[in-house]
Every structure is written in structure tokens, then in C-alpha cells.
Specification:
By secondary structure, the chain is mainly α. The protein has nine helices and no strands. The protein has two domains: about 1-35; about 35-165, no CATH class. The protein is about 75% helix and about 0% strand. The protein starts with a helix and ends with a helix.
């Protein structure tokens, strides 16, 4: 092989490698700005919400599940949902707690038994309101998320999520 052929092959190889790296970077950027398109599409279609609302609502609920599940359990849920990091990042940030008596979520989280579960889903009302969604949609998001996770990760993983979001 002469020198020109070698240079041409090396140049072609470097260009192909650079294009692959750019493609991977673009894919990562897209998944960060448009996490889990299949799930977001399902939520948007079934609940008549915008993709941004679907992404934020799903992120808020997955964030709640993350706080209620053991790390390895949430890891199983996250593995079933492509773009989980992007969904979690899209969740509305919780508002700072007011001084004084606090919110209903504060009161219910201090109660034993079933009442303590109210604090979690009740706390989603603020997140959903900040997305321009009615708080009653929280209960409609849960079965769609659970069904999606079950379809991707199996019934055991779907049940983990369902239990965390009760």
C-alpha cells in the first residue's frame, strides 16, 4: 500500500469515528430533552396532556417512587424505563415549605398507617398544578405508568411501582 492510500484510509477511519461520537452525543442530548418518548407518547395520548406535562408528571411520580423504594428496587423500575434520568430531571421542583403549621402533606406524613400514604400522592398535587394539570390526574397517571413498567420490566417490577405509588 502506498502512502496516499494509507492516509486516505486513516482519514476515513477518523471521520467515521468522529461521526459516531457526534451521533452518540446527539442521542444523549435528545434523550435528555425528550426522555422516554414511548411512555410520554402513551401518557399524552391516553390522558390528553402535552408531552411536557406528561414528562413532568411522570418524573414527579417516579421521583416519589424513588423515595419509597429501596435503591435496588427502584433500580429495577429505572431499568424498565428508558430515559429515567431525564424524566426525574423534568419533574417540577418542590416549593419551599412555609413556616408555621405546614401543609396537609406535613400532617399526613406524621400519621401512622394508611394516612401516611396520603402525604406522598397528596404532595403530587402541587407538582401537577405547576405543570398546568388538574391534581385529579395524579390518579390517572399511576395506572398508565404501572402498565408501561410492567410491559417493559415484567409484573414483579410493575407491582413494585404500583406499591410505591399507593
Amino acid at each position: 500500500m502506498n502512502c496516499r492510500v494509507r492516509i486516505a484510509l486513516i482519514t476515513a477511519s477518523l471521520c467515521a469515528g468522529a461521526m459516531l461520537a457526534l451521533g452518540n452525543a446527539r442521542a444523549e442530548t435528545l434523550s435528555a430533552t425528550n426522555p422516554s418518548p414511548e411512555l410520554v407518547g402513551q401518557l399524552s395520548k391516553e390522558l390528553s396532556v402535552t408531552p411536557k406535562q406528561a414528562t413532568g408528571g411522570a418524573g414527579a411520580l417516579f421521583g416519589l417512587a424513588k423515595t419509597r423504594l429501596k435503591p435496588d428496587e427502584f433500580g429495577q423500575v429505572a431499568k424498565a424505563v428508558p430515559g429515567m434520568d431525564g424524566l426525574l430531571k423534568a419533574a417540577p421542583k418542590p416549593k419551599a415549605k412555609k413556616s408555621g403549621l405546614g401543609s396537609l402533606g406535613d400532617l399526613t406524613s406524621a400519621l401512622p398507617g394508611e394516612a401516611s400514604g396520603l402525604g406522598g400522592l397528596a404532595s403530587m398535587a402541587d407538582a401537577f398544578k405547576s405543570l398546568g394539570l388538574s391534581p385529579d390526574l395524579v390518579g390517572k397517571f399511576v395506572p398508565v405508568l404501572t402498565k408501561f413498567v410492567e410491559g417493559k420490566g415484567g409484573s414483579k417490577v410493575g407491582n413494585l411501582l404500583a406499591g410505591a405509588l399507593k
